Amino acid sequence: MAERYGDAEKSDEQLLAMHAMDSTNRYLGELYERYIPLVYGLCLKYLRNVDDAADAVMDIFEVLVYKVGRYDITVFRTWLYSVARNHCLQKLRRKGREVPADDAGRIMEYAPLVHLLCEGNDDAELVRRLEECLGKLPEKQHECIVKFFYEDKSYADIVAETLYPLKSVKSFLQNGRRNLKICMERGDETD
Amino acid sequence: MRLIDYIFGSRRGRDANAVEKEALTDPFLADAIDGYDAVYGDHADRLAALGQDVARRAGRSRRSRSARRVVLWVSGAAAMVAVAIVAVMLFVPRESGDPYGGGMIASLTDESPEVSGGAALLSAPVPAAVEIVERESAESDASDRPSADDVAVVVADTERTADSGVQYEVEVASARSVVAESGAEKSKTTGEVAVPVKAAVSERAVATVTEHEAAEVVAVEPEPAADALLDGVVSEPDGVELVSNPEFEEYFMKNRRRVTDADGNRIEGVVVAEFRVNRAGVPSSIRITRGISQDVNREVIELLLSGPRWEPTGEDRIRIELHYR
Fold first, then answer.
1. Residues B298-322: what's their mean pLDDT?
2. Of A191, B6, B180, B252, which has fewest CB within 10 angstroms of its CB?
3. Is B100 exposed, middle or buried (0-12, 13-18, 19+ CB in 10 A)?
C-alpha cells in the first residue's frame, strides 16, 4: 500500500506537506536545495551571466515561498522548472533581450524514439524496423548512434574514440535521431 | 550520477552516458547542462554559496508576518465592531425591552428572522451576524495544501440571551485553515473557547469582546467537554470511516518519542486523527478530533506526514485511532 522513504531522504511531497505545517521555511529550503544545481544551470542558459543567474536562484526561492502554499502542486520538479523558466524569460523580456526558443516540445517529441533506443521493445516488428532504419543512416550518424545508445558511451567517450569534435558528435546524434524518426514514421505509413 | 558530478567531472563512462540520455527526455536537465556548458565561471563556489544563502533565508520565521496579519485583522475587526455599535446607538431608535434595536439587528444579519418586538428578538435564534474575516481554507479552494496565515473569527449561529455584562473570549486563530462550524447556543460563561482548527494552531491571538458586541457580531461555540478538548478539536465525525493501517501503525510505534509527560508520568490514551489522503499518498487536512496533549497531537501529525504513504482517498476523509500506552 505505501511507499516508504528512509528517515534521511524525504520525498518532495513529504517535505511540501511538512512545510505547510511549519512556521519557518526550512523544509521548503531543504527541498529547494536539492534543485539548486538544476535551477542555477537553467538560469545560466537563459541569462548568460553568473551573477544574474545566482540572483535569479534566490529570487526564484522567494517566489516559491510566496506561491507554494497557494497552488496545488502535483509534481514539484515539473512545477519548479516552469516557475524558474518563466522567471528567467520575464527577466529577459524586461531587459529587451532575445528569448531562446522552447526546446521542451522538441525534446518530448523524440521521447518515444529515445525510449525505444534505450530500453528496446517487446514488439519484434518494431525492433526489426528500427534496425532496418539504422542501417540506412549515414555512416557517421550510424556510428555515433550505436556508440551512444548501444555501447553506452558518453559524448566525451565518443569524442575520444572517433576524434570528432564534441559539437559534431552532438550534431550527428541529433540528425541521426531525426532521420530514424522519419524512417520509422514512413514505415508506419506503408504498413 | 548527480548533475554536479557530471558537470564538474570527466563526463566519461556509463554514468555520464546515463545523464546524457536522461537529458534527451528531460528539458529541465537539458537546459541546466546547456547553461553550464555555455557560461564559464566558478560554478562550484557559486553553488556552495547559494546553498548557504537559501538555508539562511529558509531559517527565518514566517511567524512575524503572520503575527502582524493577526494584529491587523483583529484591529480591523474591532474597529468595524466599534463603528457598527456607534452607528446603532446614534441612528437607530430603541424600543422598550429591546436594548439592541430590532431594525438594526435585522439589517445586520444575513438571514434575519421576522422581528416583531424586543422579546421575539431576544429569544429568536439569530444566524451569523457579521463575518469579520474571510478565510481561505483547504476545502474552499479544493487544494490539498492549507493556506498559510489564515485568520478568522469564528461566527456561528447564536441564540440571544438576556444575560448582560458577560465577557466572552473569542479565540482568533492564526491557523493553516479554520473551520467555522455552527453552534446551537453560545456560552454563558467566561472562558476560552476552542476554535475548531484543521491543523495544529501555530499561534493564537485572543480578542475579548463585550456581550453586546458578541451578541451582534460574534457567536461563540458552546464550550466543549474538557476531557475531550484539551488542545485538540472537538468534532463530530460524520460518516468518516475508521481505518487501520498496519504499516503506519508499525512506523508509529517505532518512531513516536513522546512516552512521558512533563511530570514524568507515562502518557496513555488514544489520539484520533481524521484526514484526507492526496494524490501523492500523503495525509492532508489533518484534524485531531481527540487528543492527549499539544505535544502528543503534534507528534501524531508529524508522524502521519513523514510516515509511509497511504492510498489516495480523494475528497473522502478517513479516521485512525492511535494508542499511547
1. 84
2. A191
3. buried
Kindly indicate whether the domain formed by A12-95 is annotated with CATH number 1.10.1740.10: yes
What does the pLDDT look like over B76-85, one tens digit per residue?
888 899 899 9
Query: Is the per-residue pLDDT at A73 higher than 70?
Result: yes
| More confident call, B297 vs B200 | B297
Contact B62 A23 (CB under 8 A): yes
Q: Which residue ranges form the domains of chain B, and what is each CATH number?
A: 3-58 (no CATH), 63-223 (no CATH), 241-324 (3.30.1150)
The position carrying cell 529577459 is A92
* Residue A41 forms contact with B (CB below 8 Å): yes
Query: Alpha-carbon distance B54 to A58, whole Å?
Result: 7
Predicted confidence at residue A44, as pLDDT, reads: 96
B283 contacts A18? CB cut-off 8 A: no
Closest Cβ–Cβ partner in B54, B60, B143 for A72: B143
3-class DSSP state of B208: strand
The helix or strand, by DSSP H or E, that contains position B126, with its residue range, turns out to be: strand B125-126
* CB contacts, 8 Å: A21 with chain B: 176, 199-200, 301-302, 305
Q: Could you tell me where in chain A the CATH 1.10.10.10 domains are found?
A: 105-190
Q: Is B182 left (phi over 0), alpha (psi -120 to 50) or beta?
A: beta
DSSP per-residue codes, B54-106: HHHHHTSBSHHHHHHHHHHHHHHHHHHHHHHHHHHHHHSPPPTT-SS-HHHHH
CA atoms within 13 A on the CB side of B282: 23
Q: Is A166 on the interface with B (CB under 8 A)?
A: no
CA gap B291, B228 in Å, rounded: 7
CA dist A156 and A153 (Å) reads 8
Indicate yes or no: CB of A41 within 8 angstroms of CB of B145: no
d(CA A83, CA B142) in angstroms, rounded, equals 22
Q: What is the pLDDT of residue B323?
A: 87
Tell which of B2, B31, B137 to mutate to test the A interface (max A CBs under 10 Å). Answer: B31
